[in-house]
Design goal:
It contains 11 helices and 8 strands. The chain is of the alpha/beta class and about 270 residues long. The chain has 2 domains: about 5-235, Alpha-Beta Barrel (TIM Barrel); about 240-268, no CATH class. The longest helix has 18 residues, at about 240-255. The protein is globular. The structure holds 3-methyl-2-oxobutanoic acid. 3-methyl-2-oxobutanoic acid binds near residues 215 and 217.
């Protein structure tokens, strides 16, 4: 029997000062292999808008599309916690529709949801979700759904005042009941400062080495997304070349008559 990672497991990791890992996945078998590798959290990130669907940014993906990918990932995972990223406008209209949309992701197989921001409204959404039994992961620092108001992919929390502002929001999120917080694109000092002042785990996405956990977009890790590689991501493979090479060899083999071979056909 595989032991499932839960919010309690993550709490224990923080208490014991034990680091943990998170990666995104968008399909069943990638999720299965990431799960088998021992990664603790599999995030069905709205980054799929860009890396799987080819949209320009994350704001274009719909709740229906996120639902399909969440179901696929959940079918492949038995150990990791599956977190569904709530897309732009799926939790902003009012608390009731936020509960409905987040609840749908739990019905789709997610174990928790992630929502961005730290406004008073977001705090009230978190309180309600936690009340109905939906675990919530927060997301502060650079929040991609605010791309248009932030004016681009900009590092947040660069001054003491800005770091304090993020810490205030993080504490409010913690008090509202989130079980962890992603800190995206903040200086390492800011990531450390926030991590040391919270009792829930922080998950770094470009927030340095002192957070309790790390998360990356799997397509960056696998070398599959060519458009750009964030400074904080590490490429462990070259799936772009691998897919290109396999497709090229197949194409050559078909056109030269080398595929199919004798053991790849049915006979009467
Ligand atoms: O959408 C995403 O992939 C994210 C990151 C934190 C990795 O939100």
């Amino acid at each position: 029997m595989v032991k499932k990672i839960t919010v309690q497991t993550l709490k224990k990791y923080k208490q014991q000062n034990e680091k943990f890992s998170a990666l995104t996945a968008y399909d069943c078998y990638t999720a299965k292999y990431i799960d088998q590798a021992g990664v603790d959290i599999i995030l069905v990130g709205d980054s799929l808008a860009m890396v799987a669907l080819g949209y320009e940014n994350t704001n274009s993906v719909s709740i229906e599309e996120m639902g399909i990918f969440t179901k696929a990932v959940a079918r492949g995972v038995s150990h990791a916690m599956v977190v569904a990223d709530m897309p732009f406008l799926s939790y902003h209209v009012n608390i009731d529709s936020a509960v409905q949309n987040c609840g749908m992701m739990i019905k789709n197989g997610a174990n928790a949801v992630k929502i961005e921001g730290g406004s008073d409204y977001i705090i009230s959404v978190i309180r309600r979700l936690v009340q109905v039994g939906i675990p919530v992961m927060g997301h502060l620092g650079f929040t991609p759904q605010f791309l248009n108001t932030l004016g681009g992919y900009k590092i947040q929390g660069k001054s003491k005042e800005a770091a304090d502002e993020i810490l205030t929001q993080a504490k409010q999120l913690e008090e509202a009941g989130v079980f962890s917080i992603v800190l995206e694109m903040v200086p390492e000092e800011c990531g450390k400062y926030i991590t040391e002042n919270l009792s829930i785990p922080t998950i770094s996405c470009g927030a340095g080495r002192f957070c309790d956990a790390q998360v990356l977009v799997s397509d960056d890790v696998f070398g599959k997304f060519p458009e750009f590689k964030p400074k904080f991501a590490r490429k462990y493979g070259d799936m772009q070349s691998l897919i290109f090479e396999c497709a090229k060899q197949y194409n050559d083999d078909v056109k030269s008559g080398r595929f199919p071979a004798g053991d790849e056909i049915f006979s009467m």
